[in-house]
Amino acid sequence: MRIAVIPGDGIGGEVVPAVLPALELLGDHFGLGLSYRIFDWGAERWLAERVGLPPDALDLLASDYPAILLGALGDPRIPDMAHGRDILLGLRRGLDLYVNYRPFTPRGGDRTIALFRENTQGLYAGVGGTVSHGRHPAVAIDECVYTRETVEKFLRYCLRTLSESGRERVTLVHKSNAVPHTGRLWQGVFRAELAGFPGLVGSEEYVDSFCYHLVRDPSPYEGIVASNLFGDIVSDIGAALMGGLGLAASASVCPETGCALFEPVHGSAPDIAGRGIANPYAAATAVALMLDHLGHPRAAAPLRRALAAAARTDSATPDLGGHGTTGTFMADVMKRLEKDLADDRPEPRT
Ligand code: NAD
Ligand code: IPM
Ligand code: MN
User: Fold this and answer.
1) Region 267-271: what's the mean pLDDT?
2) Tell me, what's the pLDDT at 298?
3) DSSP conformation class of 96
4) Fewer CB under 10 Å: which end of the chain, C or N?
């Protein structure tokens, strides 16, 4: 089971190396036969060689790596994020990872809300352009492009997953009052696909009012399905409801090929990069999502337990109110994990 590891930029290069020992420990303990290879794609390589996603990368990943672990991309020296789009959006689109699962558990509650974001089209389709008169762009266009085929397979996968997880409510987040063409396509497909899942009750909310309600009281929501940009924005709100971007992780998958990419929801956080205080919780949760996806939920469970316990202590990073560092937090997590595995419970608690 080969894993491609792309630490990337900023705190990506801090949190990803910090969580790899946990992956190794779990792989050894459960005999998963995991190995990984680190790829240096990111800002440094872009600035030195103008290489973002190397030309053979997609073929290599698709054929040899069933899972990718990514830190974050983004560097103040590349303000237009050209390398980030090339690498990150290149991976999402190039591997057709059209389902982006971004679960979040609002603080004070024990229920995880399953947010699904379409990950390859919409305003991220890359369709658009600028017309310049003189030195400045006079016209700028980014088209929101959705195909029925993608919306159908995305929503069908989300509804099936929600229904298999025992959830009963699903909300479509849209803006069809102002953005009618793609909005109506999504509504039509949502209603049609819901008919195949009698156990699910669907609702539809405008994204602005949805955000208002979610922030005021997330408790009514169980499953959320959203187009690319709305899902991006809502996932940062979800992270805030959890207690910070340091906690939220995501899985981007292509259900047909099984290709999958796991990453924190957060970015490269230049404001704290290099100080050793980035919270590795989200990156470690990305590892847990990866273990689930690879068919090893028994290996993911002790990692989640250790993370949750360590997050409540002073070894946690400052964003969680602790006085720790990336290193002290993961040292605490590893200690708990080793003890948990040594206790060798036959049935891990979930
Ligand atoms: P960000 O997510 O990097 O940071 C937002 C805020 O959250 C910052 O104050 C940061 O310090 C804090 N934060 C984020 N992760 C944290 C962690 N693990 N521990 C503690 N605090 C954490 O968003 P931004 O500042 O808007 O973006 C920075 C760069 O990252 C930009 O170049 C952006 O394009 C890029 N970005 C990349 C990804 C990705 O690679 N998936 C995601 C979001 C943003
Ligand atoms: C995310 C990020 C990316 C996105 C950016 C960096 C292109 O915000 O993964 O949430 O918009 O998808
Ligand atoms: Mn985002």
Assistant:
1) 98
2) 97
3) T
4) C
Q: Is 69 within 8 Å of 263 (Cβ atoms)?
A: yes
pLDDT single digits (tens) 122-145: 999 999 999 998 989 899 999 999
CB atoms within 10 A of CB 159: 23
Pocket flag, ligand 1, residue 272 (CB < 6 Å):
yes
Query: Residue with the nearest Cα to atom 37 of ligand 1?
Result: 267
Residues in CB range of 32: below 8 A, 6 or more apart: 1, 26, 291, 294, 296, 299
User: 111 to each of 170, 219, 222, 223, 240, how far by Cα in Å?
Assistant: 14, 8, 8, 11, 15
265 CA → ligand 3 middle, Å: 6
- The domain total for the chain is 2
Last-in-domain residue among 206, 223, 244: 244
Q: State how far the Cα of 16 lies from the Cα of 42, in Å rounded to an integer.
A: 14
Q: Are 94 and 114 contained in the same domain?
A: no
Range of the domain at 33: 1-102+248-350
